[in-house]
Specification:
The chain has 210 residues and is an alpha+beta fold. It has helices at 69-75, 94-98, 182-195; strands at residues 37-38, 45-46, 53-57, 63-67, 101-111, 117-124, 130-134, 144-147, 152-154, 165-170, 173-178. The strands form 3 sheets. It has a 7-stranded antiparallel β-sheet with strand order 8-7-6-5-11-10-9. The protein has a two-stranded antiparallel sheet with strand order 1-2. Strands 3-4 form a two-stranded antiparallel sheet. The two termini are 23 Å apart.
Amino acid sequence: LQNAELGKRAPRWIRDNEVTMCMKCKEPFNALTRRRHHCRACGHVVCWKCSDYKAHLEYDGNKLNKVCKDCYHVIIGCTDSEEKKKKGILEIESAEVSGNSVICSFLQYMEKSKPWQKAWCVIPKQEALVLYMYGAPQDVKALATIPLLGYAVDDTPRSADLPHSFKLTQSKSVHSFAADNEELKQKWLKVIHLAVKGETPECQNELQVN
């Protein structure tokens, strides 16, 4: 929702399973901070610290509702200039880059000898040489970024790997990925083969993966 509409219209609720961290302070949800709250104004999933505000919401008959800090400041008309501090490289919201990406989808990811884990992977149009990895599609901070330029691509899975996997290697760093199917794997490889050479795809829109 735009700022002007906050509190006037019911928001779309982000589902709990679409995030792995508070969408405001980026605190990961874990066994201790498992409680997830929804801001009744913007619909974002936030931790208890960031949901400890109340404001009168027009769409709910002006009743007092739990809201996040940002919406609270907007609704009561006070701006928080400190919030506008420059975002770090990892603090690009996933929804922001996924909506304007060369390619994005879930991939399985393995680093060194850790177990495979599912990650939401995105190559944004404005940075088509960088792979962003998020815990979930609506997370507000990336877990990691891989600048693809100069990586070698190995797309032949070993017997121990998942079937549709490929590796990116550069000196000592090795990143292993696996797609759910061969078609998705080939779409990613098409983009990555260009990115490692410093090139970007011409026909970017054809590679959108839902």
